[in-house]
Write a structure and sequence with these properties.
The protein has 7 helices and 10 strands. By secondary structure, the protein is an alpha/beta fold. The radius of gyration is 16 Å and the shape is globular. The structure holds 2-phosphoglycolic acid. The site of 2-phosphoglycolic acid (PGA) has 6 residues, from loops.
Amino acid sequence: MSAITILNSYNSLSKKVADIVEEQLKENRISRFILPTGSTPLGLYKELVNRELDWSSVMTYNLDVYIMNPSHSQSYQTYMKENLFDKTNIYPSNCQFPDRNVQSYEVRLKGIPADLCILGIGTNGHIAFNEPGSLFDSRTRVVHLDEQTIQDNSRFFGSVDDTPKQAITMGLGTIMDSKRIILMANGKNKFEILNKAMNDEVTTMVPASILQEHNNLEVYYCDEK
Ligand code: PGA
């Protein structure tokens, strides 16, 4: 079982996780972060940009990408540029995304585990694009997205038909190698799955449940949505 800290607003959730990132950056300028996309971390990135931190020695690794043109307006590469990278002094060459050379992404992460991994959770319990049924020791790979995920993400693409069906994701094993993990969730529609993932059995049918076995996990939730 893992405790869920409930915050009273989306602003508090964003600020709490921004504090953790800021502390990590101040403790070690050469930090390695694993970063999420989606609607949940938008407030976090806004907060971080406002704090004008020094990102010049930071390395970032994104959790996942859709298989699509990286310059598309809805790609995760574009999302990161628009919401964080172009608004900080981070070096673009220090911002890594999974690509079809999945082994190489693993090698880049394997030698030195990330100092901090920030995650969201999908309504089906996925973390990154590790859909239900993903193996706990899975590594970076190409995946087919779940019907539920395609449905959830179609809000960004206008229709289910236009929503990508495949992605490249870090594996659950890759994520679990991180030194410290922060899981953030916002919205009443996330509470049931979050609670299940943190307090019920550890099962591949709820991929986030593996996080219960991480020795340095914090979980933050608010129900503002
Ligand atoms: P969301 O997605 O932040 O857009 O709700 C989270 C996720 O699917 O991991």
